Structure prediction request, 265 residues.
Amino acid sequence: MKCDAKLINKVCDYLGGDLNSEPCQIIKEHMKKCHNCEIFIDKIKKTVEIYQKADGCDCAPENITRNLFLKLDLCEPKNSEHSK
Amino acid sequence: MGDHAALSQLVSLYTNRIYRLALRLTGSEQDAEDVLQETFLIMIKKIKQFQMKSSFYTWLYRIAVNVGLRRLKTKPFKFQHVSIDDPDIERVSSMEAQEWPAIDYDHISRKKFRKKLDSAIEQLPEIYRTVFILRDLHELSTEDTAKILNITPSNAKIRLMRARNFLKDHLEDLVKAEAII
Prediction:
């Protein structure tokens, strides 16, 4: 099946947007018929997952956090809950 | 005293997020630390000017991205930036048919592999890298990403698609070379 370039460029809507939106529905329908696009989208999804996983491993090291609070002349809160 | 405690909480809440943003943007721990410090110094200086027109984190991210991009301008590029295009439709139609196996998450934390992931991100020109970091790594909305970068939402979507496609192609090569996922 021949894929449509415009459709492929709407993958971002599909992956990051409202799954009930019109572009998502069109892509879902297309994927049912087009195995190549299904694989393409799966690879994009896996790429994002891998990068998210890798990025999540990086917290500010303790010395960098300590230096920051010193620089700002603030006291680091006890039991500070750093964001993700 | 109360102001200091509240500021400390605020800084503490966003330290990791801004550090990770700065690290991905600059590709250097030293630069990331400098960006982190400068971002919060500016935040403290300007916090009284913050108006509730945007959310606080959007405002803070905007400061951090601007500080990070300014810093990058003073540095020679570590990598020659690559040409970034839309997905090649012929390739999708013909050569993409080889599926990737399930992800081995343990492999992602290995230093050697992380270096390869980081080097691919660093090869992206800033206009694509910033969108990918904000949208996919920090999971901001397209609208917030566009506001932070002062671009239109459709421009943000185009840049994100190209960035994702470039990184996917890069991973594709790694998959072939190392059978890592």
Notes: Chain B has nine helices and no strands. The CA atoms of residues 159 and 178 of chain B lie 28 Å apart. The mean pLDDT of chain B is 85. Chain B touches chain A through 58 residues (CB under 8 Å).
